[in-house]
Amino acid sequence: MRLLVPAIVAGLFALLVGSTALGSVPIPAATTISIFFHELTGGALPPAACSASVATHQCSIWIEIVWQARVPSLLLALVAGAALALTGGSLQGIFRNPLADPFLLGLSSGAALGAAAIFVLDIDPAHQATILPVAAFLGGIVPGTVIYLAARFSRRGPAVLILSGVALSTFFSAILSAMLLYNPASDVSLNFWLLGSLGSTSWSDDGLVAGVTLVLGAILYLRAREINLLQLGPEVAQSLGVRPERTVQWTVLLTTAITATAVAFTGIIGFVGLIAPHIVRRLAGVDYRRVLPLGALMGGIVLLVAWDVAVAAIPPVVIPVGIPTAFIGAPFLIYLLYRRRAPGGSAADA
Amino acid sequence: MSAPGSATLRVDRLTVRYGGRTALSDVSLEARPGELVALTGPNGSGKSTLLRAVMGLIEPQGGAVVVEGANVPDLELVERARRVAWAPQEEPVGENVSILEYVRYGRHPYLAPFANEGPADHAAVERALRRVDFWEERGRGIAELSGGERQRVRLARVLAQETPLLLLDEPTAFLDIGHQLDALERVRSIARDERRSAVVALHDLNLAARFADRIVVLSHGRCVAAGTPEEVLSPELLADVWGIVADLRRDPATGLPYLVPVLPMDRPPLAGAARPRPMARVHVIAGGGSGAELIPRLAREGFEVSVGAVHLFDSDAELGERLGVAMATETPFTAISPPVAEHLRSLLEACDAIVVAPVPTGSGNLANWSIVAEWAGRRPIALLPMPRDLPWDFTGGAAARLREGILRSGGEELPGVEDVVRWLRIRLADGATRTASRP
Questions:
Q1: Which range among A293-302, B37-46, B231-240 has the greatest average pLDDT?
Q2: Interface-testing mutation among B84, B95, B97, with chain A (most A C-beta atoms within 10 A)
Q3: Hey, which end of chain B has fewer CB within 10 Å, N or C?
């Protein structure tokens, strides 16, 4: 148990470094790794990046590819995975629903619709990076409100909440497809929004997503103990000094913002928010003070692995990252649905 | 915090309405330090509602709930949670946390947002777990616990809150009798040792009488009785509030009152239960406790039972009296006199069948045998076997000879009460017996 956190962090870092070797341009792994450390330390480590046999010109292109294209994508995978896992984990907690996931609840597609609207409206690209998350958040408010109300007023068990989410999700995706198909001028691909992509990102985008996720995630973490108490039912939680309504409202609001920021730069990526918290529960127990932060790290790992698969599956083509996550996530969802007692607790007693 | 001797909890004219329905009206009660107050009443009488209102989970329409001098609705939730702890009747199982983690939830009202539990919190959790004998097993997951264990762990969670007032809603629900006693004994000793007040909703009046310092009885949202078990428990209360007839007894071991519910004769025990033949009359010869099983069983089966002749204060006579059956009774320690014999004959004349219990016979009740012998052949007679290993005939063989005679002239010996019931159903099913033997 005590070694779990260092193990996860070390695994994450190793995965990050190793993944620099994958991409459509073949570069030796030793080279990409040495480039990574060279750049990471600001040139302090010797630039063993390129061997003597490689031309300097070639070498600087490789550095450009690794440090300006591959690493930003990997970091986006890390922070977006963390954002989705934070959202999934805390929504699973407040709704006592093991199936909660930003994609399945329609949050991701709502946010994607909001963000895509900015492209279709042809807003000055210079402002896009800042407007994009805001538009995504506005798009996420609709499904956020719907799931909040559905959870509050419907006592029909976990599947119903998810089914309304899936319905919303399908609806938003349809509007999104229509919008993008009728605006052929838009240079953003439909696949980017519907199945997710980490390919076209920059250090500044990563910084924005990371900053928002970190700050809002910290505020969310303040509610972790309250989410623990909600597992005993709203009345017991209240008897212990928690205002259940307020916990739920804050959590939905914060996770909508976190998800929207990630989705604005990645498009819709399903199931990461579902899988990562469940893995962490298995490894570290069900205290949300551990499930949330460790879940975020695990989300980073899951999405990194998915991205590696997306890059390496059929080179030189990079497939949308939502495809590998769906390949793992959909069977996992079915497994959760059919398991008699899910860790969220309410699957059986709903 | 509070002056010695003053109440931990004072509920004053509390009124709670749900929609259009009044769930509680003008309820007042007090709980002092070290005291266990049992809240009892039929289903839907407002016990749980009262506990919820005291916890502040329900907004009352009128009245006050004062805990250690502060009005609960005015307090911040965290402040409430430091004064009042509440355990509901049922709780979602939730995540499978360890017992230790679960009991730590009780420390939430003492923790700042980013803080984790400190030494004081760990000490409180350990004390609570030791109190319910779960410290050694604190690593087990709560989902693996049995119902009784879960109740104890829940009690520990509530104790870890270190509140002067404990509210427990049916802490004995779903527990077997052993665990019921264990749970309430723990609550009582905790209240006494730690000078806390416990208000406990309990279905079972006898458990309430046994463990509570005071009992408060609710009926239709009103407080209808309050006081010590001695003052509150009465057959009248049971009749008024629960609508059942009961006997008030005294537990010989504890000297405490307890109630034994009795099924009234004029009400079928099971609604819609088929009776073999309504109002078929069965006369039982009993005495000395020999009818203890037989008489109530026949009454329950729906037969109209008569008993006699028995001596007053004989346990079978008291049983018959409680059941309200027709009886021929004789003064204690005297032989059956001619008027009583006549009464017995009239009962036998009116009955459809006779059942003779294994009644110990002496000169006082020998006449029962001779009178039953007169009806041999005129009524179906069933006799239960006499004990083999105990003497029963104290008449020098006269009773045994009469019994032989009855058996020879058509009386049937049946092995047990169950067989008697079956035999009666068959014999009385055709309805011929009574009419044939009557003019």
A1: A293-302
A2: B95
A3: C
Residue B258 belongs to some domain of the structure:
no
Single residue among B197, B232, B267 that ends a domain in this structure? B232
* Structural domain count, chain A: 1
Is there a domain that residue A285 lies in? yes
pLDDT in tens, A158-173: 677 888 888 999 999 8
Contact yes or no for A241 and B52 at CB 8 A: no
Residue B19 placed within a domain: yes
Q: How far apart are the first and last CA of chain B?
A: 85
The structure tokens listed for B320 are: 């018959």
Q: How high does pLDDT run on average in chain A?
A: 86
User: Residue A342 pLDDT > 70, yes or no?
Assistant: no
B313 neighbors B332 (Cβ within 8 angstroms): yes
Interface test with A, best of B58, B72, B108 (most A CBs within 10 A): B108
B92 contacts A232? CB cut-off 8 A: yes
ipTM: 0.82
- Number of domains chain B contains: 2
Whether residue A286 and residue B93 make contact (CB cut-off 8 A), yes or no, is no
Q: Partners of B245 in the beta sheet?
A: B262
Place of tokens 């946010």: A111
How far apart CA B421 and CA B427 sit, in angstroms, is 10
Q: Which residue of B has its CA nearest to A221?
A: B114
The contact set of A with B (CB < 8 A) is: 96, 222, 225-226, 228-229, 231-233, 235-236, 238-243, 281, 285-287, 289, 341, 343-346, 349
Nearest CB among B52, B98, B108 relative to A240 is that of B108
> Does residue B334 fall inside a structural domain?
yes
For the record, the structure tokens of B388 come out as 């083999």
**At A333, which CATH number?**
1.10.3470.10
Q: Quick one: CA dihedral A184, A188, A190, A193, positive or negative?
A: negative
Query: Is the predicted pLDDT of residue B436 greater than 70, yes or no?
Result: no
Token couple for B210: 């046994």
pLDDT tens digit string along B43-72?
Answer: 889 999 999 999 999 989 999 999 998 999
Same domain flag for B300 and B385: yes
Query: Is 0.90 surpassed by the pTM of this model?
Result: no
Exposed, middle or buried, B174 (CB in 10 Å: 0-12/13-18/19+)?
Answer: middle
Q: Return the top range by mean pLDDT from A313-317, B327-331, B431-435.
A: B327-331
State phi, psi for B177 to the nearest 5 degrees.
-60, -40
